[in-house]
Design goal:
Mean pLDDT: 81
Strand content: 15-25%
Strand order of the largest sheet: 9-10-12-13-14-15-16-17
CATH superfamily of the largest domain: EAL domain
Number of helices: 19
Structural class: alpha/beta
Number of domains: 3
Oligomer: single chain
Number of strands: 18
Length: 548
Amino acid sequence: MKFIKNKAQRKQIYSLPSVFSAIFLSSFSFFPQVNQTEEKTVHTAYFETMISEMKSIFSAQPKIVFILLALTICIFSLLLIIYFMFLREEKHHFFKIAYIDELTGMHNLHWFEENVPKIIAREHEKKFAVLSANINRFDIIRNCYGEETSNNILNYCARIVGEECRSHNGYAARANSDYFLCLIPYQEKEFLKKDLEGIEKKYEGFSIKSQTLILKWTFGICLLPQNCAIDIKKAINAATVARKEADVNFSPIVFFNEQMLAQINLRESIRNFQEQALQQQEFEVYFQPKYHMKDQSLVGAEALIRWNSKEIGFLSPAQFIPIFENNGFILKLDFFVLKTVLSFLEKREKAGKRIVPISVNQSRVHLNDEKYVEDLRKLFLKFDLPTGMIELELTETAFSDIQNAQKIMNEIRQLGFLTSIDDFGAGYSSLLMLNAVPIDILKLDRFFLTDSCDSERTREILSHIVSMANALNIRIICEGVETNSQAEFLMSVGCNFAQGYLYGKPMPQKDFEQLLDQTSNLMVNDSDSFAIKASDMIGMTASEQIAI
């Protein structure tokens, strides 16, 4: 201890950093000594002295070495434990972000896509189905009840889906909004459908304060093939396609098939090419003649739209009209048809050829358009035609708001158009509607002809409808007449006008013009002509009519 001159120096040597430094530096004593220069710095001499002193201390008291080593190991171990706990917490945190839905606590779409193929491969002996489920009209529920209530509903639905999946040894996830995905093993398709029907009925009510909200579920199902590789994204897409098809068809449960995917692609193509088709004149107006059945005379026609698409091919109205009504394109298309018909009639009128009243379908969407009547007026003023030559035809479902319909129909008639109700009897026909809304013509739905023509009940119903219409000064025509027995049945109950394949199929404008020219010399009984029935001002031009 001769090198330690005083207590201050001793404290410096025994301080913890000095001890650790000594231990570290002493480890180099095992290496061979190198030649040193004669001149040493004070700093190097100090450390050599300290190392020499520590060697003598550790030789005298070896327990200090073990204590320091043990302390070092403990501190290092503690730091490792803290580090791994931190890593575990971070891993759990990132797992929640990556795989857990924040609102409901369910697995999310990412987890479903990543883990379902592994589950199927692990349990390859089972048959599995991927389900896409949602709540009907959830966007309306959210708008009506607010975000808090809608989130409560989502949590309730998540609990239902999770519990039902677990009870069937399946797995569930929330994809987004009110859309849930499930992987469920099943034995037979019929049993799976029955189970889903039971779930729909079991959990259709959600209590909100003092009332119960009815929840309607929609399920799209994709049955997975056994013992082969599964593209889970395609399976999810297939189940989603089936669910959307269920929404369109108002069916709670729909199983996917390849035809559905073709329909989805067709609908998307229709939306993509609608504007281009109008600009390139791909839409064509066809005419289906209307006849007086007693004397077989041509008394009018209905304008029908057809689409011969360059990209898609020939399309019937049933394929594109519902899509156009949903996206609003029907407003443009209806006015295109109306303008085409007005131009056709004016051309024949100026040439001194025969013209007949033509009915043009108008979507119920128009009744919600504030500019509808004004747009009709502006269009009609561009053509010099007698009034009563155009019949605007709406389905009875368009008259849900009778007060609004009454106002618009009165304004339409003041412009010189005839008004008619299409598919009468197919929906919720109202006698109040017939009394309140000004109607010139009723078109009976072909539903009445699907029943037996010998049905006494059908005969009585139609007889009373015809009698009521005659009393209200409303003309009656029946569509879809295809056989002579149907025509005779209609005439026996007092309906004398008909439209259908028995008298003529929808035809291009050129063919209809030829038909009109062939019948130009045939006189029609004035009491039965549609052209007489417009209003008290029939025969006036559009400008004269509006001037009044």
